[in-house]
Amino acid sequence: MGQMATATLLSPEVLAKYQPVIGLEVHVQLLTRTKAFCGCINQYGGDPNTHCCPVCLGLPGALPVLNRHAVELAVLASTAINCTVNEESVFARKNYFYPDSPKGYQISQFDKPLAEGGYIDVPAEGGGVRRIGITRLHMEEDAGKSIHDGFADSATRTYIDLNRCGTPLVEIVSEPDIRTADEAYEYLTRLKEILLYTGVSDCNMEEGSLRCDANVSVMLKGAAEYGTKAEVKNVNSFRFIREAIKYEIERQIEVVEGGGRVVQESRLYNSAEGRTYSMRSKEAAHDYRYFPEPDLPSLHVDAAWKKAILRDLPELPEPRRKRLQEQYGLTEQDAATITADRTFADTFEAAAKTAKSAKRVANLLLGELIGRLNTAGLSLDQSPVSMPGLVKAADLLEEGKLSSKQLKGLFDIAFEKSEDFAAVYEREKPQQISDTGAIETMIDEVIAANPKQVEQFKGGKTTVAAFFVGQVMKLSKGQANPALLNELVVKKLSAA
Ligand SMILES: [Zn+2]
Question: 296: CA distance to ligand 1 center in Å?
Answer without folding.
Answer: 16
